[in-house]
Specification:
heterodimer; A: 114 residues; mainly beta; 0% helix; globular; B: 110 residues; 4-stranded antiparallel β-sheet; 9 strands
Chain lengths: 114, 110
């Protein structure tokens, strides 16, 4: 049983560019959440998708957007990249909206913005 | 959201018990207390959660104070593989997003 998978593992972009990160949830899960983890910090919640809709959102600008597909996989898009967007981006999956007490995280995508 | 306070770092000898404390004095009555850990170069992984009473699973035990203002994650015998950053996270019942702090970095000494 494959866990949460993310692609790519590493990515280098320049300021102003756009990036798309991808996530496949654990088998049987239908909810995907995205987190940003800066170096030395804990992960920060970006947003969550369920039934192909954004259900909850953290304190991130509109440059951060996402999508969930009918097969529950998800994409995170970041436009107009800033140096401060350099971080590890983590995807987590769970089942259902109510009380996802155990979220399963992928290994993350390391984004470097030059 | 409830705020948490954890020590920045702790050390333990291998095969010794480890008690990782967390203060969450502003927790509400319906907030669950979750613990996750993040091994080097990996995403976080769920460890344990509880509401009012002590909880045990194959990974750890969670001791929750009677007033729920603090909790302690107990690793009964630390192994080198337990070296990680441990996060204590109060979670509002019904909410799925997790609010991570900076956690406690546990070093296990062989």
């Amino acid at each position: 049983d494959a866990g949460v998978t993310q692609s790519p593992t590493h990515l280098i972009k320049t300021r102003g560019q756009q990036v798309t990160l991808r996530c496949s949830p654990k088998s049987g899960h239908d909810t995907v959440s995205w987190y940003q983890q800066a170096l030395g910090q804990g992960p920060q919640f970006i947003f969550q998708y369920y039934e192909e809709e954004e259900r909850q959102r953290g304190n991130f600008p509109d440059r951060f957007s996402g999508h969930q597909f009918p097969n529950y996989s998800s994409e995170l898009n970041v436009n107009a990249l800033l140096l401060g967007d350099s971080a590890l981006y983590l995807c987590a999956s769970s089942f259902g909206l109510a009380g996802a007490y155990e979220q399963f995280f992928g290994p993350g995508t390391r984004l470097t913005v030059l | 959201d409830a705020k948490t306070t954890q020590p920045n770092s702790m050390e333990s000898n291998e095969e010794e018990p480890v008690h990782l404390p967390c203060n969450h004095s502003t927790i509400s009555g319906t907030d669950y207390i979750h613990w996750y850990r993040q091994l080097p170069s990996q995403g976080p992984e769920y460890v344990i959660h509880g509401l009012t009473s002590n909880v045990n699973n194959r990974m750890a035990s969670l001791a929750i104070a009677e007033d729920r203002k603090s909790s302690t994650l107990i690793l009964h015998r630390a192994t080198l593989r337990d070296a990680a950053v441990y996060y204590c996270i109060p979670q509002i019942k019904g909410a799925n997003n997790l609010f991570f702090g900076t956690g406690t970095r546990l070093t296990v000494i062989p």
